[in-house]
Amino acid sequence: MDKTPLPFEYVDGYTYNLKGLRTVTAKSDRSRWDKRQATLILFIWADGRGRQRLKPIIIFRGVPGNRSQIPDEEKKQYATGVKVLFNEKAYNNEKVITDIVKDIGEYADNEDTLLVMDVAAFHKTPALMELLRSYRITTALIPPGCTSLLQPLDTAINGPFKDWLAEFADGYIAKKEDQHLQQQGGPMAWSVSDRRIMTTHIVQQAWERLYGREFLVQKAFRKCGISIRPNGSEDNFINIKDVDNSQIDFTGWETADNNVPEGYKTVSEALNIHHRFRHAAEDYLR
User: Fold this and answer.
1) Mean pLDDT of all residues in the chain?
2) Which range is least confidently modeled, 15-19, 135-139, 167-171?
3) Residue range 27-46, pLDDT digits in tens
4) In terms of C-beta distances under 8 Å and separation of at least 24 residues, what long-range contacts does 89-92 make, across chains too?
5) Per-residue exposure over 120-153, b if at least 16 CB sit within 10 Å of its own CB, e if not
6) Could you list the residue range(s) of the whole structural domain that residue 133 is in?
7) Integer Cα distance of 92 and 59 in angstroms
8) Is 42 helix (H, G, I), strand (E, B) or coil?
9) What is the pLDDT of residue 43?
10) Could you give the CA distance from residue 153 to residue 229 in angstroms, rounded to a whole number?
11) Residue 200 confidence (pLDDT)
12) pTM for this one?
């Protein structure tokens, strides 16, 4: 699981104007629409087959719940393959992650589950840790500054996903503006509502494309060392940026120290969960 900012405009780095002009300006419908306007939360699974398990979540800026001022007519136009939330900062928070954990727990159906995510403060509150344990979910929290090296979404998925969003946004905008020109006889003036609707559709399209590439997701987990065999026979698949593979050696990691991992009451509790995962992984990979 990982979050990434979403703009309302995707500037591709190229601008165009007539030959000979000294100034070339990028077209923008609204000021700062190319900056973060929403947060996207994606869920990928080690087997690469998670498209139908949990929908992508888009968090827009707005008042949540019954006090929302977003018209129902707009919400009816959102893509059905994404989940849309609103809060004042358009950002992930403890309430959002709590609901996510409940969704994961319901899907996992009391089976041991490993959840890999960054170490944001609201990812490790006592209440959330207790909820995770109740669903038999173990967390692997990526240390600060290491998500670009150890988080599968950061290492292999977010880059192409953002490129697909830009591609689908171009197609969506061209189609809508052409329709408006044909029907109204003039250029289309985009509203924030229009862009929210567009964002849901291009995220759904990019999500569907991602899960047409199961190998990309599977490879991302292996490179980060998450889904390889726990007996060490597949350590050669680990590929961490700027780290030579010969320097990667996890021999004896189970007994490296006796510190109680964060979120657990005792070392024994943590090791028991580790052993359950090890056996489950070996059964899955047979």
Assistant:
1) 82
2) 15-19
3) 455 556 777 789 999 999 99
4) 89/61, 90/36, 90/37, 90/38, 90/39, 90/59, 90/60, 90/61, 90/62, 91/39, 91/59, 92/3, 92/39, 92/41, 92/59, 92/120, 92/122
5) eeebeeeebbebbbebebbbebbeeeebebbbbb
6) 2-11+31-285
7) 7
8) strand
9) 92
10) 20
11) 97
12) 0.78
Give the count of domains, the chain. 1
User: Nearest 5°: phi and psi at 192?
Assistant: -60, -40
Tokens of 157: 């998925």
Task: Decide if 176 contacts 183 (C-beta within 8 A).
Answer: no
> Considering the domain boundaries, does residue 24 fall inside one?
no
Under 8 Å between Cβ of 56 and 49: no
Q: Is residue 25 part of a domain?
A: no
Mean pLDDT lowest among 91-100, 112-121, 171-180, 235-244: 235-244
Q: What angle do CA 96, 166, 79 make, to 5 degrees?
A: 50
DSSP H or E segment with residue 220: helix 214-223
Please report, as a single letter, which amino acid is at residue 160: P
Inter-residue contact 148 to 241 (CB < 8 Å): yes
